[in-house]
Write a structure and sequence with these properties.
Length: about 650
């Protein structure tokens, strides 16, 4: 039986701020001593070649995460079998040839003072035949609710082969130098599929009651124990709640975990969600911070087993409280350490304002599946740390940055840090650009953290800032810089239809700039990200709202999980959604819209909000392009997109001037 030492008072190292002293107290279980309570949970980076080989980039990625100060780093899920992969860029451990690459990761983590741990995994039905060139394996003839392809239910013999493969993977993990193995039993992947009545309707010994559904996991644990011995530290990640009918609940998860403790697990990581409820796996900004801590605490109380909690814990003070109040033994900070790998070290020194906080936008999750590699909205250097290394310049230049939105701010502090003489001009009395408006809605308040971080970097590197300063061509001539950075953003598009000048037509900006928008019957023209967001905002302040969208669906290119919850909330707030229709004209007391069949409809309304997109604000560029300065345009000023591009382009430019 594993013994939790969490109740033993071990003083943190000297120099740790009082406000995080519990977070930085050591923790022991089995033969492992963790220097603090922060764990980097498994996070697919997909910085891996499509034949599964580990490159210098992969190793550097892990080295950097470890160097930031967490006590333990768990690698991304490594497939135990070829048909268990979810992407060609997934890490693998199903053959001895992968040991060499994985051992480089283990060594890099260890050399930075963290415990190297590895997660082993099989996707089961949650992958596609296109990737694995065969039907995905599953416990029962039930398709994955998101991928929806045909599946191949596992025979008893097939199950036994997989149990052995998990054992082989365990041996390879140990040979590669990892000091803890985590079995991925969560997130709707194969082991989770066996646990849950939602995905397991087998009538043999691997289905039926809790014991039957836990049998596969139990055999996997026993096999790893048989191969690695009693002492090797073994973790199990579980989705303790699936939030679907017939899915796992905390009560049943406790029963399952009791079986697995008897089989030999030493620690559990308590997560949530499955292939039908991904919003519980990677909680978007709508979800409360630390929303899974309660389930971890219940499991900790019910079992004599150390517990790791995970899920939207992006703040070291909050993490400290979780440890202080005994809700968990260890805190996993995943996206938080992608956004800022140095968060543990900064927190330990009390440099809280210097932490680049994760805003739960899930761009990282979206990018691994859409782009095949991880990217972060707030941390453009993630996965390209070498390319975007900040190096001092030999010949400092006089740089004039125009626009204090996310693009201009990033360009300004990065260029200053490199040694350039930078002046930033912003016509508004405050910095932040359109992102300030973007952070007005309740569920997006955390965007303010991004602005706070950028402002802090300006202070730290002493960037000369001129607020309330509208730059004209004349001013540029007076300043006479070597380089002009135009980060002037974008302006809203306005459809040219009859009545558009009417008093009832207002911009998104005027709504978001007002403290409490008056409750009025409102029609929003445009159901993209901004239109949906403003619809939710107004409906929350009591306005009856209708959205008119030309496309068949609303939500545009919003990240999948955010879109799912946002649309659910719009429906809960009775927002009327009219698709495949566009604005024809605005009248005194309403709008006329026309659908794809040319049917016209009048909608009575007291307020019309135009949310049909943005176009680059190039006015200044057009005036100065012939002056002969070195001019760069970044962010929305180049093409109206999102803060992600603006921040990235600001960083790239700041690193290259
Ligand atoms: C309601 C809303 C919600 C949004 N939500 C999100 C989101 O959730 N995620 C996301 O990624 N993106 C979001 N966006 C988009 C995002 O805000 C923009 O893409 C991003 O701010 C562009 O950054 P930028 O630095 O290029 O320009 P901006 O943020 O537009 O900043 C340009 C700045 O330049 C200043 N300026 C212009 N001309 C001059 C001049 N001549 N002299 C001095 N200053 C000047 C402006 O005052 C402004 O502050 C949202 C936008 C809106 C409107
Ligand atoms: C890009 C990305 C990749 C992930 N990959 C894995 C994975 O390989 N294995 C796993 O168990 N969880 C994975 N997760 C889930 C995280 O480990 C964690 O449970 C989740 O992000 C919530 O914690 P956080 O809010 O601290 O990020 C991933 C999450 C993200 C955002
Ligand atoms: S992309 Fe968004 S959710 Fe992911 S780590 Fe960065 S800020 Fe957090």
């Amino acid at each position: 039986m594993p013994v939790s030492d969490s109740k033993i008072d071990i003083s943190p190292p000297g120099g740790v701020k009082d406000s995080v002293k519990y977070l930085f107290s050591p923790f022991r279980f089995k033969d492992l001593t963790l220097k603090n309570r922060i764990v980097l949970p498994a996070l697919a980076s997909f910085l891996i070649e499509d034949d599964g080989s580990i490159t210098e980039k992969t190793v550097n990625h892990y080295r950097l995460r470890a160097a930031g100060g967490p006590a333990m780093v768990i690698t991304e899920a490594c497939a135990v079998s070829q048909e268990g992969i979810v992407s060609n860029h997934q890490a693998r451990i199903y053959d001895d040839r992968f040991i060499k690459g994985l051992s480089k990761i283990a060594r890099a983590i260890k050399s930075e003072g963290a415990i190297p741990a590895i997660q082993i995994h099989h996707a089961g039905r949650q992958t596609s035949a296109k990737i694995i060139k065969q039907k995905p394996l599953s416990p029962s003839p039930l398709r994955c609710p998101t991928i929806r392809g045909d599946v191949e239910p596992l025979t008893i013999e097939g199950i036994q082969i997989l149990v052995e493969k998990f054992g082989d993977a365990g041996v390879r993990a140990m040979e590669a130098g990892f000091e803890l193995i985590e079995i991925h039993g969560a997130h709707g992947y194969l082991i989770n599929q066996f646990f849950s009545r939602f995905s397991n309707i087998r009538e043999d010994e691997y289905g039926g009651n809790t014991g039957g559904r836990a049998r596969f996991a139990r055999e996997v644990v026993l096999e790893i124990r048989r191969r690695l011995g009693a002492e090797f530290p073994l973790s199990f990640k579980i989705s303790a709640q699936e939030f679907v009918s017939d899915g796992l609940t905390v009560e049943e998860s406790i029963r399952i975990l009791k079986i697995l403790v008897n089989a030999g697990i030493d620690i559990v990581q308590v997560s949530a969600g499955n292939d039908a409820t991904p919003e519980w796996i990677c909680q978007p900004s709508f979800m409360k911070k630390g929303c899974l801590v309660g389930s971890a605490e219940r499991i900790r109380k019910a079992l004599d087993l150390p517990v790791m909690t995970v899920g939207r814990i992006n703040d070291p003070l909050m993490a400290n409280k979780i440890i202080e109040t005994g809700k968990a033994d260890l805190v996993c900070i995943g996206r938080g350490l992608m956004a800022d790998p140095k968060m543990p070290k900064k927190a330990m020194q009390g440099r809280f304002d210097d932490i680049r906080t994760c805003i739960a936008c899930n761009t990282c999750m979206e990018s691994i599946f859409r782009k095949g590699r991880v990217e972060c909205l707030v941390n453009p250097a993630l996965g390209r740390e070498k390319e975007l290394e900040i190096r001092l310049v030999k010949t400092p230049k006089k740089v004039m940055v125009i626009g204090g939105g996310p693009g201009g701010l990033n360009a300004a502090w990065v260029a200053t840090r490199r040694g350039h003489d930078v002046q930033l001009f912003e016509r508004q009395p405050q910095l932040g650009g359109q992102l300030k408006l973007g952070s007005v809605s309740n569920f997006k308040r955390e965007l303010l953290n991004m602005i706070r971080f950028q402002k802090r970097q300006l202070e730290r590197f002493k960037v000369q800032c001129h607020l309330d300063h509208e730059v004209t061509a004349e001013i540029i001539k007076q300043v006479n810089p070597d380089v002009v950075v135009l980060a002037t953003g974008s302006v809203p598009l306005v459809p040219s239809v009859e009545g558009i000048e009417s008093e009832i037509v207002v911009s998104i900006h005027s709504i978001l700039n007002s403290n409490r928008p008056l409750p009025k019957r409102t029609t929003i023209i445009g159901g993209g990200a901004a239109g949906c967001e403003i619809a939710l905002h107004l409906s929350e302040y009591g306005s009856p709202v209708a959205i008119v969208e030309t496309l068949p669906k609303i939500g545009g290119n919003l990240e999948t999980m955010t879109k799912k919850i946002l649309i659910k909330k719009l429906k809960e707030n009775n927002v009327r959604i009219i698709t495949e229709s566009k604005l024809l004209k605005v009248e005194d007391n309403g709008v006329v819209i026309i659908d794809k069949n040319k049917n016209e409809t009048f909608i009575k309304t007291q307020r019309v909000v135009i949310a049909v997109g943005y176009q680059s604000d190039n006015r200044l560029y057009d005036q100065i392009k012939s002056f002969g300065y070195e001019i760069h345009r970044i962010g929305d000023c180049l093409e109206a997109r999102s803060a992600k591009e603006a921040i990235y382009e600001g960083m790239v430019l700041g690193c290259s001037i």
